[in-house]
Amino acid sequence: MKKLSKKALNKSFRNWFYGHLTCFSQEHMQTFGYMCAMLPIIQELYDTNEEQTEKTLTYSTFFNTEPQVGSIVVGITAGMEEARANGEPVDDETINGIRAGLMGPLAGIGDSLVVGTLLPILLGIALGLSGGGSPLGAIFYILVWNIGMFLIMRFMYFKGYELGGKAVEVLVGEKANAIRDSIIMLGTMVIGGVTASWINITTSFQMLGSDGSVIVDLQKTLNDVYPSILSAVFVLICWYLLSKKRLSPVVVMLILVAVAFVGVLLGFFNPGLSY
Amino acid sequence: MTINVVQAAILGLCACLSSMPGLGGTTFGNYTLGRPLIGGLVCGLVLGNVPMGIMLGAAVQIVYIALVTPGGTVSADVRSISYIGIPLAMLYVSSVGLDPAAAEAQGFAVSMAATVGTVGTVLFYGTATINLIWQHMGLEWVKKGQLKKLYLVDMVLPWISHILCSFIPTFIMCYFGSNMVQLIKDYLPMDGLAMKTLFTVGSLLPAVGVAILLKQVVSKPVDFLTFFFGFTLCACMHLNLIGCAIVGGFFAIINYNIRCLALRPAAATAAIGAGDDDEEDI
Questions:
Q1: Of B214, B238, B257, which residue is a domain's last?
Q2: What is the domain range of residue B137?
Q3: Burial of A176 (C-beta count, 10 Å sphere; 0-12/13-18/19+)
Q4: Which residues of chain B are within 8 Å of residue A67 when distances are taken between CB atoms?
Q5: Which residues of B touch A32 (CB under 8 A)?
Q6: What residues of chain B lie within 8 A of the CB of A188, using their CB?
Q7: Same domain, yes or no, for B111 and B238?
Q8: Which residue of A190, A199, A261 is in closest CB contact with B245?
Q9: What is the tally of structural domains in chain B?
Q10: Would you state the pLDDT for residue B111?
Q11: Is there a single domain that holds both residue B156 and residue B237?
Q12: Which of A137, A162, A227, B62 has its CA 20 to 30 A from that of A54?
């Protein structure tokens, strides 16, 4: 009965924690980080180089997910690899099926919970502590984010290892869907809050009467309709271009540059700054 | 304020560590060193004016608070924002003699960072493309059974990509930064069309970041109502983000409980049945 040592697991986790995206390319994304994370596991479980090579190649298929939450997948496959080394019926298809099946759902959770909710909140607090150029906010963020994330990722990794193949039931069952949808719901709300709090798109368009008095102040009118409506409108336009027109973010940004240029020419936008 | 060789080299090194597929790892590299607020602290320490670095970094951070890179698509390059944009803005602000807390100084920092951040996406794609070479070599090595070389591929060879695409551009831009800042000042007056456009782009760009996030979480039209619920909490009811997250968490729990009830139709019916029996007993 083979059992992975704490040392191998820790090394595997560290490889993932540090190396999951150090060698990124559009073609392989996190694949090489994944293989590095599995290497200590495979080296401990199998003795001959042929076996090790064969098992390592299992993990050479494409992998990409939200890496913080995704460390649970690495833990799961470590558990499954251990089961396979002990002669349980686990083949390449099972392992890669689980990896492929978890990539999408976990990316959804991670993007809405970690980068969509946690990061903006922590950065928001840090910005609040940075008044007058105080380094307190930055230090707060460095400590809380790094220590917190290390512990969370470590917990996820070892939880995944403990559950092994059983984790799939926990992560993709009906109940898991309910949890995921609820988390994404929370994330969507906070993203709405981020839009309102941190995006500030305003117009300077005004219609002046012949005596120079302001007849229509568009921004004020819009605020009466719905506060910060322009910020929401621009996010929706960008969303439409990205997901319905399938444009790349770079193209969308170029469109925004054109919009800004025309808007400034027409007097719709005016940041009102001078040297 | 000027940037000497050593300072430019330190900033270049930070750029290598912090970029999106960065050598500092995602947690410490991209999500810590790469954030403009932290970049502001580092630039302030390196250039010897921490309060100015933080103030300009914080202004830039607001623009990029929702900057994420789902699916490997980037809308802005963090290494350029934090280690080219902020140092150049600091040079400029100190050479003009602006107060870093003033709107003009912060506005300049934002537009500078937005410009280099957008142009800098080239560096992102450059790094990723060069990494392809190492990965193809790596796959060959693995097939031959040279497994230890995986570490070389994942953690050592990408340094070459980063020296080419992060260190050298950052070093050059920062080292010759004073000249560039002078050029910008001479040729692009702040009330001119180009600078006005730049500032406006700076305020529009965060919409792309949020839209990328939104693309990940919106699967059906009704999800937009959830988005506007959060938006309304902050825009109309002036909650801050923590308050918004708590209200959101509360609704998430309600949603979860409802979904769980729906999952157990048999058990739920049985429970109702049992309830009826009790009433009959009374």
A1: B214
A2: 5-214
A3: middle
A4: 26
A5: 135, 138, 150, 153-154
A6: 214, 217-218, 223, 226-227, 230
A7: no
A8: A190
A9: 2
A10: 79
A11: no
A12: A162
Q: What is the average pLDDT across A31-47?
A: 94
Min CA distance, A46 vs chain B (Å)? 13
Q: Do both B210 and B118 map to the same domain?
A: yes
Cβ separation B193–A235 shorter than 8 A:
no
Query: Which sequence spans correspond to the domains of chain A?
Result: 6-195, 202-266
Q: What is the pLDDT of residue B71?
A: 56
Which of A135, A195, A259 lies closest to B210 in CB terms?
A195
User: Chain A residues with CB inside 8 Å of B250's CB?
Assistant: none
Determine, for residues B239 and A193 on separate chains, whether the beta-carbon distance falls below 8 Å: yes
Q: Phi/psi of residue A215, each to 5°?
A: -90, -50
Helix (H) or strand (E) holding A208: strand A206-208
Mark whether B182 and B232 lie in a shared domain: no
Q: Are residues B151 and B271 in the same domain?
A: no
What ipTM does this complex have? 0.83
pLDDT of A275 over the 50 cut: no
Helix, strand, coil share (%) of chain A residues, nearest 5: 75, 5, 25
Overall residue count recorded for chain B in this entry: 282
Residue B232 and residue B139 share a domain? no
The Cα–Cα gap between A56 and A47 comes to 13
One domain for residues B230 and B207: no
Name the percent of chain A lying above pLDDT 70. Answer: 98
B244 CB within 8 Å of a chain A CB: yes
- Max CA-CA distance within chain B? 92
Distance CA A30, CA A70 (A): 11
Per-residue confidence band for A220, with pLDDT thresholds at 50, 70 and 90: confident
Are B270 and B256 part of one and the same domain? yes
* Record: contact B231-A193, CB cut-off 8 A: yes
B108-157 confidence digits (pLDDT tens) = 888 788 888 878 888 988 999 999 999 999 999 999 999 999 999 999 99
B141 in contact with chain A, both atoms CB, cutoff 8 A: no
On chain B, the residues whose CB falls within 8 A of the CB of A243 are 215, 218
Return the structure tokens found at A74: 């690495």
Final residue in a domain of this structure, among B214, B245, B260: B214
Closest alpha carbon within chain B to A60: B139
pLDDT in tens, A241-268: 988 998 887 788 889 889 999 998 888 8
Percent of chain A with pLDDT over 90: 44
Q: Any alpha helices (H) in chain B, and if so which ranges?
A: 5-18, 36-47, 50-63, 78-80, 86-96, 103-119, 121-143, 149-151, 158-162, 168-175, 177-187, 193-204, 206-217, 223-235, 241-263, 265-281
